[in-house]
Amino acid sequence: MEEKKINTIYLLGAGRSGTTMLATILNNHPNIFTIGEMHQFLDYVLEDKDCSCGSKLSQCTFWATILNSLDLSVLQNKNNVELSNSSEKHHLIPFYLLGKNIPPTYRKIIDMVFSTIQKKVDKPWILDSSKYISRYLLLRKNKKLNLKGIYLVRDVRGVINSFGKKVQTPKKPLSAILYYTLINLSAQWVCWWDKRVIKIKYEDFVNQPEQTLQILEKHLFNSSNNVTNLKNETFNIPHIIAGNRLRSQKKLVIKKDMKWKENIGRTHQILYYFLTFPLMILNKYKP
Ligand SMILES: [Zn+2]
C-alpha cells in the first residue's frame, strides 16, 4: 500500500519580504496550518525557546503535544542540529541544483517531524515559512512530501528600509542588496523550472489581498473559491517557530508598509534600483 504523502506548502524569499504576514494570513485558510520557520525547529527544541504564543515550546499548548510524540534524543543530538543547520546554508544552493543528494539523517528528521505534525493537526496542509532556498531544494528531493511553493518578492527598497530598523538582525544597505540579489536570483531560478512554485509580489498582496489569495487558491488547491474582503479583518497569530516581530502580537491585520518612499532619499532610491536592476525590471518595479 502506498504511504500517504505529507502535504506541505513552503514559503521562499528574502527576509523582510512579508513572509510572516503571508504565512499568518494563510493559516486562516481552512486547508492550511502554519507552523513557522521550521529550519530553526531543532535550535528551538534544543534551547526550549519561546513559541509565538509566549510560552516555551515545552509548555506551549500546541508544541508540547508534538514534542511528546517525537524522539527528542534525535532532535537534541548536537550533531543532528549541526547537520540540519549546515545542510541549509545558502552557498549549497548551486550544488543542490546540480543534483547533490539530501543527507539521509536530514531526511529522517524531516520525515519524523512533518509526519508527526500532520497527524496532530486538523487541516490537510502544513505551511513551513522558512524562506531558505536550500531548504526548499532539500524538501523537494524528499519523495514523502507533496510539496508546493510560494515565492514572495518585494521591492528591494522596502527590504533595505526594513533591514535598517534597529530590531532583529539589521543589515546595512550594501549587505542587504547582496543578500537580496543572491536569494531572489536563486528563488527566481527555482520558480522558472519548478512549476510547483508560484511567484507573488508583496505589493500586490498588500494592495489586493483578495486577488492574490485567489491566485494562490488556484495554484495550491486548483479551486476557485471566492475570497471575501480581507482589508479590515484581523487574524490570529498561530503557534509559530521564529518569524519576525509580528509574531509577538496577538492579532494581525494586513498592513501595507511603503515607508521606504519617505525614509530613503530619491538619489539612494535610484541607486538601489540600479544595483538590483535585473530583478527590479523582471518584477516590473518602477525606479
Ligand atoms: Zn505556542
Q: Total domains, how many?
A: 1
Which hetero compounds are present in the coordinates? zinc ion
Strand order of the largest sheet: 2-3-1-4-5
Question: How much of the residues is beta strand, in percent?
Answer: 5-15%
The CATH topology is given as Rossmann fold
Measured between the Cα atoms of the first and last residue, the distance is 56 Å
Strand tally is: 7
CATH superfamily: P-loop containing nucleotide triphosphate hydrolases
- What's the order of the H and E elements? EHEHHHHHHEHEHHEHHEEHHH
Short synopsis of the structure:
The protein has 287 residues and is an alpha/beta fold.
What are its keywords?
single chain, 287 residues, Rossmann fold, 5-stranded parallel sheet, binds zinc ion, globular, two-stranded antiparallel ribbon, 46% helix, alpha/beta, 15 helices
Describe this structure in words.
- With 287 residues, the protein is an alpha/beta fold.
- The protein has a single domain, classed as Rossmann fold (3-Layer(aba) Sandwich).
- The chain contains 15 helices and seven strands.
- Strands 2-3-1-4-5 form a five-stranded parallel sheet, with helices on both faces. A two-stranded antiparallel ribbon has the order 6-7.
- Helix 9 packs across helix 10 (173-193).
- The radius of gyration is 19 Å and the shape is globular.
- 39% of the residues are buried.
- The chain binds zinc ion (ZN).
- Residues 51, 53, 55, 60, 62-63, 239 line the site of zinc ion.
